[in-house]
Amino acid sequence: MKGQAWKFGNNIDTDLIIPARYLNTSDPAELAQYAMMDADSEWVDKMKKGDFIVAGDNFGCGSSREHAPIALKAAGVSAIIAKSFARIFYRNAINIGLPILESPKAAEEIKEGDEVEVDLSSGTIKDITSGKTYKAQPFPEFMKKIIDAGGLIHFLRKK
Amino acid sequence: MTPQTISQKILAKHANLKFVEPGQLISCKVDLVLGNDITAPPAIKEFEKIGVSKVFDKKKIYLVPDHFTPAKDIKSAEQVKMMRHFAKKYGIVNFFEIGCMGVEHALLPEMGAIKPGDLIIGADSHTCTYGALGAFSTGVGSTDMAAAMATGEVWLKVPEQLKFIYKGKLRKWVEAKDLILYTIGQIGVDGARYMSMEFTGPIIKQLSVEGRLTMANMAIEAGGKNGIFDVDTKTAAYLKKAKAGKGIVYHSDPDAEYKKVYNWDVTEIEPQISFPHLPSNTKPVSKCSHVKIDQSVIGSCTNGRIEDMRVAAKVIKGKKVHKDVRLIILPATQKIELQMIKEGLTEIFIKAGAAVSTPTCGPCLGGHMGILAEGEKSIATTNRNFVGRMGHPKSEVYLSNVAVAAASAIAGHIVSPENL
Ligand code: SF4
User: Does 3.30.499.10 match the CATH number of domain B272-415?
Assistant: First the structure.
């Protein structure tokens, strides 16, 4: 997957990703319109399908709303690269099949607007603009199975 | 036998293992699965995709519409309708209409749904509240909730363990809320990320169970997976009153391993205020010079219990809410609301010029019942002050204990009751 990097800071909370005032629906397409609304109200119009979010520590802290990764996925974000993720966001992303990559170095060095390429199977992040390559933390076997199945529900159905 | 903490012992038991170690991925049986009107609808949709014909246990699933109820608009009404139908279709016993509902994390302990030693997951981040009763309880997302409703199981990573020991003497007007705000201020909003927070020490023993619920509630604000407390005679009395079962009481082994142990003397700690826009931006109340407020909110799963209402009434009795302030009081459950009426607290609040609401999350998450306009400031006994949490992205929320929120509503600016 290839796309442009959009940078966000530390502790990006779920209220920034999708404010609670829009949570009276769980329709992905509707939620997508409000993704990152309170962080940057024009972001949804600026970003293109396939782009990446690159953020600092504790991405997705706050509430357990699965609407947060759903909104980002539906908006067309292909993956999130961060220094670290908040616990519930991490589970939710895996469970719904939104790729996440933990790489402090990539998160630090990739700049806003850089062209980025990610190979999920090997966990390789390439910053085409700077020419640098990074390796994300590998997932444990068990989580890989959920990811490969396309999320927890597909994984259970197979079982 | 490898020494273990309470959290590890509960996880091991539910994974059918002798012991577990941090980092280990385990599959656990759950004793209770919870969802609300925001998180249950997506869970229901996912559940229907799994292709099972029944839920794992009709009595162990709790559906509590509390966030946007009484339904604030048509879409919210549709969400609750979906939950209601789902509960009927699968014979789920514990669905709570308005009139018998409450804010989920106040309701479940109060009605005796939680026992020590239980393993609980809820599609709400503040599910960590129940650790106050010696249960391992953590927040998950809607897909996890769906999977648990079908299988009765959840996958978990065994967290590393942190211990917080509180000693000294509590000052007047300092509440359990201040201890947890102070803790988050010290370690940061990711200071316990992925970890278990064990709260102990002589001060914790002095706290009421309600105070412990307040503290456990905010473990997530430090990034914690769960908060946990020892079960003592106060817990036992609380459980008895709630008609909960006795459960299984675990204690941490004295030589159990902790990633870090924090030792704090609380004697010098004042009531704490979390400034916008992170719960970790704490300052002692004496350092808050003239923050004018437009609103004060007393309630939520953090501080909406009867003990909180008594503190608020003590401060407010005989006084008037400042003319530029809207004071909104939200008892967290029907039972609390009734008790307030019996004790005359509701009358004190209404006479002072406060608005008293039926139980709901309401303004806590910027849902309804007290949304902030651009540039407005609210003090609140809730647990989060992120950008836009209570309304306009350019509004501000200051977190505090109950006494300070009550005193500030009278004064019109943030102040300790001491200086009212
Ligand atoms: S009161 Fe606030 S924090 Fe508690 S469950 Fe409701 S919205 Fe969440």
Answer: yes
Closest residue, chain A, to B25 (C-alpha): A142
d(CA B294, CA B363) in angstroms, rounded, equals: 14
pLDDT at B145: 98
| CATH number belonging to domain B6-263 | 3.30.499.10
Maximal CA-CA distance, chain A: 43
* ipTM tops the 0.90 cut: yes
- Alpha helix segments (H runs only) across B100-190: 104-110, 142-151, 176-187
Q: What is the pLDDT of residue B39?
A: 97
Q: How far apart are alpha carbons B297 and B11 in whole angstroms? A: 37
pLDDT tens string A109-156: 999 999 999 998 899 999 999 999 999 988 888 888 998 898 999 999
Judged by a CB distance cut-off of 8 A, whether residue B365 touches chain A is yes
Q: Tell me the pTM.
A: 0.96
Q: Which domains does chain A possess? A: 2-158 (3.20.19.10)
Which ligand 1 atom is the nearest neighbour of the CA of B367? Answer: 7
Q: In the predicted model, what is the mean pLDDT of residues B306-324?
A: 98
Closest Cα of chain A to B261: distance in Å?
21
Q: Are the C-beta atoms of B311 and B403 separated by less than 8 Å?
A: yes
What secondary structure letter does DSSP report for A13? B
Boundaries of every domain in chain B: 6-263, 272-415
